[in-house]
Amino acid sequence: MSTQDFYSQGKLLLTGEYVVLDGAEALALPCKPGQSLSLQKTTGNSFQWTSYLKNGKLWHESLFTLEDILNNKHKNDFEKRLFEILKVIYRLRPELFESKYSFTTKLDFEKDWGLGSSSTLINNLSQWADIDPYFLLKNTFGGSGYDIAAAGNKSPFIYSRHEDKIHTRVVELDENLKPHLYFVYLNKKQNSREGIAEYRKKRPDKRVIEEISKISRKLTKTKELKSFENFLRAHESIISEIIGREAIQPHLFSEYKSGVVKSLGAWGGDFVLVTVRQQKDLEYFQNNGYSVIFNYKDLVY
């Protein structure tokens, strides 16, 4: 039987965290590692789902029926989230479920890195079903949708959403900056849905939205590292005030004096952006137990 193959890129959000939900322009970075989906029609009575981790080890395996999907007969949290997606697809394309399939997914990044295991899955399934991935996201996990835009992109872009209208514009960071930019994993996964729920209680005014949008645009035009860092600091200060949390650098990395540390996406976990003058500066993070470190060009396009 023929196999259908799909692939979606992972994501990082350099600017606009939280406020992208209210129309701010955000600077998004598609990642080189992503997630694949392969499927074949089968002759059995059940759907088969198999997911593999980055190291090739089995992540999840299950058999289920259309009745299980429609009646939420899930056996674990993985199936619960999966059935949410498949149920929405069924409402739009019920004819797809007249056949049975064997689905296989494979992550190219560690599932706890926060690079988009959910968004890449939604985008892959939407490609298979030929439906709008933003609609699928809105009716399942929610969020701004920048991660869906990243899933099909291979260049940095400015993203904004006004009601249900999505705007993306391809941009680039100056080549002279990239050798000084690194991504450091904080050794913990952050639940973005929890962060969004807290943010929703606070909602900034239009002046703040525009200020973040300006920073997003300016970062794509600056060529000097010092100027780039000043914009990052200003961004951290604004978001800190909005959500009432201390920025990550004074909170965790107050002794790092060689550059700037900036949160990416929901604050508190996943990756941070770090600026360095020389590669030796990274020893500060390595010596403090942060061993997963990527150069800009190793991780993002």
Short structural description:
The protein folds into 2 domains: 4-169, 2-Layer Sandwich (Ribosomal Protein S5, domain 2); 173-299, 2-Layer Sandwich (Alpha-Beta Plaits). Helices cover 34% and strands 25% of the residues. It has 11 helices and 11 strands.
Report on the structure:
The protein has 301 residues and is an alpha+beta fold. The protein folds into two domains: 4-169, Ribosomal Protein S5, domain 2, CATH 3.30.230.10; 173-299, Alpha-Beta Plaits. It has eleven helices and eleven strands. The protein has helices at residues 66-70, 77-92, 117-129, 133-138, 146-151, 192-199, 206-219, 225-243, 248-252, 283-287, 296-299, and strands at residues 4-13, 26-42, 47-52, 58-64, 100-107, 157-162, 165-170, 181-185, 261-263, 271-275, 293-295. The strands form two sheets. Strands 1, 2, 3, 4, 5, 6 and 7 form a seven-stranded mixed β-sheet that branches. A four-stranded antiparallel β-sheet has the order 9-10-8-11. Strand 9 (261-263) and strand 10 (271-275) form a beta hairpin. Helix 7 runs antiparallel to helix 8. The chain starts with a strand and ends with a helix. The model has no long low-confidence stretch (mean pLDDT 95).
